[in-house]
Design brief:
Blueprint: H1 21-41, E1 51-52, E2 64-68, E3 74-76, E4 79-81, H2 86-94, E5 102-106, H3 112-125, E6 130-132, E7 135-136
Parallel strand pairs: 1-7, 2-5, 5-6
Antiparallel strand pairs: 2-3, 3-4
Helix pairs in contact: 2-3
Length: 141
């Protein structure tokens, strides 16, 4: 018993269609990989916060600026102060008015923890109204 599978022709016809199934499989695998990897890649984003696109707010006549410099030294206005003397110096400048808004600004290189420590010093001194100062970024219309 024998069976003949061909029709006697030795020439194979060319297939002009592209088999897209492997391409679809590869795309689905890549989609799954990127869906898993994308949240992991966004954990360590470099944050650059000094510029703001918010509308400029009016300033008081004599704003009180507290600056944290890059070497973590504090200046109140143009005078350097010690961290321990911050509360007493603020009381002297504001005449004990705890509702005075303090404009806090910091260098780009100041660690976030150090900025929070200065804010905690302000809170312990009784000054709860703190405004963070940043560069005003002009946006194109």
């Amino acid at each position: 018993m024998s069976v003949r599978l061909d029709h006697g022709e030795d020439i194979l016809n060319e297939v002009h269609e592209i088999n897209v199934t492997p391409f679809i499989d590869v795309m689905l695998v890549l989609l799954i990989i990127f869906m898993v990897a994308a949240p992991l890649a966004t954990v360590d984003i470099q944050v650059n916060l000094p510029a703001s696109t918010a509308e400029p707010q009016p300033r008081p006549e004599k704003p009180l600026y507290l600056t944290v410099k890059s070497d973590l030294a504090l200046t109140l206005g143009n005078d350097a102060i010690e961290r321990g003397a911050l509360g007493a110096t603020l009381d002297g400048l504001t005449k004990g008015e705890k509702e005075t808004r303090i404009f806090l600004r910091a260098d780009k290189t100041v660690p976030y923890g150090e900025l929070m420590e200065v804010m905690n010093l302000l809170r312990s001194a009784g000054y709860l109204k703190v405004a963070l100062v940043g560069l005003e970024k002009v946006t194109a219309p």
